[in-house]
Amino acid sequence: xxxxxxxxxxxxxxxxxxxxxxxxxxxxxxxxxxxxxxxxxxxxxxxxxxxxxxxxxxxx
Length: 60
Hints:
Radius of gyration: 21 Å
Order of helices and strands: H
Oligomer: single chain
Number of helices: 1
Largest sheet: none
């Protein structure tokens, strides 16, 4: 991944030390969100096949 930075050159090593772990966390979070979305889509398909309404009554 190419990183464009307008910070001073003296901060470049720090930027690499900080940014790369943060990007890895973002990639992990993105993968988790994708997995949750895919599971939810599959549940919606199964609910539809079973005739379960998308709108459910919430207990107060």
